[in-house]
Amino acid sequence: MAKLRTRELMLGIEGLALLREAASADDQFVEARLREIRSLLEPGRQASSSDVVELDVATGYAAWAASYDSLPSSVIQVEEPLVHRIIDRVPTGTAVDAACGTGRHAAALLARGHRTIGVDQSAEMLAVAEQKAPAGDFRVGSLEKLPLDDASADLAICALALTHLSELGSAVAELARVVRPGGKVVISDVHPMMVLLQGQGGACFAHGPRRLAVMHNHVHLHADYLTAFAAAGLGVDSCQEPRFNGEFPPGGFEERIADAARAAWQGVPSAVVWELTRLP
């Protein structure tokens, strides 16, 4: 079974900080990083670790549903305001929140007057969404086969879900299919640079005593998105890449090496947010 090793994570961040600052850091910064590295490697220092199991998406989100909204997310912190700004400009109509999870965007759509349909493959996540947004119409379904008619929506949102798919084409085509010509599609996702740097350790959640679970994140480069958009008949209106906001989850290991962590992640984009229009 794989393990998430806190000491090795911290050493990796220290190394990334040194790599990024190699040509610009002063001696004091370098010495501080080396001092922390030596401390982490002291003989006899116990290295903590947790077992990690990789779950498929359906099993993973079923297990995560009860605690999902209680965990801080640096990606959601920078992604959500941008998605809200986009939907603020969209006229009221029928909106689809695909892979809606616990319904955070569905609730925002309802608050703006949209007739809102939330779709997710996890009944457990949908149960939470129904409590959060009782006026929504929530349905079990997959991104590759949305339970909606062609051109039945004015707006479709898919937030932080495509990273779990090995390829983008089928899901993007479905989002385009259910939106009328001239309608809007908004897609957000974990930024590929963040997936590349963090690997599969970026979104772990508790799954029993001293045990963590993770669902696989795939790297989708901008070229992959653009290819899928073109094939689905979607035109790009905007692409925004919000960067790490400098905040760490309280009580996390980053706080113990805060200077190194800030230097490692400063300026790195956390998410990508696409605003698209369904072409005629």
Number of helices: 10
Q: Structural class, please?
A: alpha/beta
Question: Roughly how many Å apart are the termini?
Answer: 50 Å
Fraction of residues in H or I helices: 25-40%
Describe the structure.
The chain is an alpha/beta fold. It contains ten helices and eleven strands. Helix 7 links the parallel strand 6 (153-159) and strand 7. The longest helix is centred in the first third of the chain and has 15 residues, at 6-20. The mean pLDDT is 92.
Please supply descriptive tags for the structure shown above.
10 helices; 38% helix; single chain; globular; 280 residues; alpha/beta
Summarize the structure.
The protein has 280 residues and is α/β, with parallel strands linked by helices. The protein has ten helices and eleven strands. Strand 3 (94-98), helix 5 and strand 4 form a beta-alpha-beta unit.
